[in-house]
Amino acid sequence: MYEPIRTKAVDPRIGVPRSDYPRSSRAEALDIQLAGHLAALLTVTDELGLDEAAAVVAAQVTRLRGTEPARAPRRGGREAGAEAAAALHQRAHDLAARALLVAASRADTTVAILAAERMDAHAAALDLVGAH
What digits encode the pLDDT tens for the residues 4-54? Predict the structure, then answer.
């Protein structure tokens, strides 16, 4: 059977002014999200050994975050087999697509163009890997 709650629930926010809670604007939230997608894209780009592309992506992450991104040493994407390379290119393509969506939401033309270029490059690489 049902037993009623005997004590009242206490909301810890009651009595606390709303200004005490940290808030971020929509633009700040989109900046954080975009920087995260680009940082993930940077990691995969580094793994693939695409140094020039990685430098461009890193510059955009630095612009959004205000600090240089942490970068892991390369694990040898170029030396990996075709299946592993295809998986990395697919992951990079997906991340670039996510970055493109967020960049469009925040009207960041520079990142939108970069993301579209990376999508094209990874799609072409997938075609090449799939052909061999």
Answer: 767 766 666 666 555 655 677 888 899 999 999 999 999 999 999 999 999
User: Residue 61: how many CB atoms within 10 A of its CB?
Assistant: 24
CA distance 53 to 45: 7
* Cβ proximity of 96 and 119 under 8 Å: yes
Q: Which two tokens stand for residue 89?
A: 């290119």
Q: Which of 89, 94, 97 is nearest to 115 (CA)?
A: 97
Which CA distances in Å does 44 have to 20, 30, 39, 62? 39, 21, 9, 17
Kindly report whether the global pTM for this prediction surpasses the value 0.85: no
Phi, psi of 25 (to 5 degrees): -75, 170
